Amino acid sequence: MNSITKILLTLMLVMGLAACKKDEVKDDTTTAPVVDKTVDTAVTTNAIDPRNHVDARNLDNPESLLSKRVIFFDYDQSTVRPEFRPVIAAHAQFIAANSSANVTLEGHADERGSREYNLALGERRGNSVNGLLSAQGARGSQVNVVSYGEERPICRETSDSCWGRNRRVEIVYTAH
Amino acid sequence: MNQYPHNQGNFFSQHLLRLCIGLLAVFLLAENALAKLEIEIVEGIVGAIPIAIVPLKWEATTPPPLTLPDTVIVDDLYRSGLFNPMPPEDIIEYPTTGEDIRFASWQALKNDYIVVGNITGDVVAGYEVSYELFDVHTQERLLAQTLPVKPGDLRYAAHRIADAVYERITGTPGAFATRIAYITATGTGDNIVFQLMIADADGFLPQAIATSPEPLLSPAWSPDGNKLAYVSFEKGNSAIYIQNILTGSRQLISSFKGINGAPSFSPDGNQLAVSLSKSGNSEIYLHQLGTQEFTRLTNHWGIDTEPVWGSNGRYIYFTSDRAGRPQIYRILSSGGSPERISWEGEYNARASVSVDSKQIAMVQGVKNRYRIAIQDLESNRLIVVSNGILDESPSFAPNGSMILYASKEDGKGVLLAVSVDGRVKQRLILSEGDVREPAWSPVIH
Q: What is the 3-state secondary structure (H, E, C) of chain B?
């Protein structure tokens, strides 16, 4: 929001100036965005554009979707929820652009029900994420799916919220 | 536990100095190992058969172990829920043979049966345990046996006596002289340690047969009781191993891409049913042991896993979500179309088949509650025998009398055993960490 407001203010200012100096309209309207762009690139080279999903530095940038590497699932489901699609798309972009990148998708389930079924469920979740990654350019050789079922919980309480945190796929970069 | 401390105290004061320190160390180690699992009866039944197990007279020339065989017999019979053994402290007469029994006294104490006997030999050469079982009312001798016992096998001998007494009185073979396998997880985070354990069926004498920082799961006994198949993540992905519990030697069976899980030995011990996802989706395969062959048995986009053989080898029962949610199906081990078995409840998984193939036990999930249910395969009648929230991994006792399963209590994995009618329940507690995935061994001959 903040940056959009800034851009709008800049544009309004430029347009205002342009309105004042009618004969120089062409020059002003072209130079103003150029000035803005140089500011932008200065920002990306120093602090990284979080929306740049091919830059490895964004893997550790909390502002970037690339830093988000856990996808959560509904109970006994392996369909990726809509809110996680942009995260997976960002990783797909990165993996597609970096041929040396390799990821392991670790599939997990909550503790309810039987262990071997949960192992299969964890794999199916990993496969769902893998499907989206490869549909968006990741090569099969770059992605490996491993299911741990319910054996590696991140939360050990018996509660809905805890189960929700355990039903997940973790995107683990083994090379980038 | 110790029913005649007075006698034992005398014995120790007389013989302690003569005790070889090495032997003492062995006893102490053994007793420490015993302390790992304790048993607690959760619910018993009214009307259990009253029986007096008179302490077997210790006539061996070396000191007795801290837990005497008669204590083990008392505990076994009590745990079965069918017997109500007389509390050892209430016993005031100590006959050792049938001739010494004053039946009137035991009738007055309201016992239906009585066991008497003695133990001779020594800790080096081994023992002889003699016992007799009598009907207190008819004074008929129902059993008389002398068992040669190797040093260190006194507990096992006691379990065998309990089996014989149980069978003579109830008509059903006992399952006390059997073992259980289970997985433990201790520690958290990076310090977590998984162990594949085996122990006597009463939880005593636990020993680790595999230890790993990565998950271990799904132990399954070979029909001869000498081997265990299990899943290990030690290589980063799941892999199936078969380990000989006598020699410790181990064989890698499968480590394909994807899941290698849920091993189950065929009744003849020649094949292993497994779940593999090398095709991209988990399917049931049969593996001929000693070959590299894996024959695919199911073919469906749904999850097919947890295969388990029926006792005659004709059918394989498995879990599949081909109808949307997991349910139990069965397929001929020779191949064919799967047939759905479970119909009640939104979630049914992880079948265990009774030895006579007449019943299956499974995990049944209904509205966020997972309990153990038993389905009669002829009538399809279903009873829920556990009352936890997260009960799983049912395993039939080899005599079909009880089911061992895992549950979670106060955030900790525990093992419970319940009689197939759901009336008698016992808890086996490990002192630390999670206990899970019990598998009851076949009867070991």
A: CCCCHHHHHHHHHHHHHHCCHHHHHHHHHHHHHHCCEEEEEEECCCCCEEEEECCCEECCCCCCCCCCHHHHHHHHHHHHCCEEECCHHHCCCCCCCHHHCCHHHHHHCCCCEEEEEEEEEECCCEEEEEEEEEECCCCCEEEEEEEEECCCCHHHHHHHHHHHHHHHHHCCCCCCCCEEEEEEEECCHHHCEEEEEEEECCCCCCEEEEEECCCEEEEEECCCCCEEEEEECCCCCCEEEEEECCCCCEEEEECCCCCEEEEEECCCCCEEEEEECCCCCCEEEEEECCCCCEEECCCCCCCEEEEEECCCCCEEEEEECCCCCCEEEEEECCCCCCEECCCCCCEEEEEEECCCCCEEEEEEEECCEEEEEEEECCCCCEEECCCCCECEEEEECCCCCEEEEEEEECCEEEEEEEECCCCCEEEEEECCCEEEEEEECCCCC
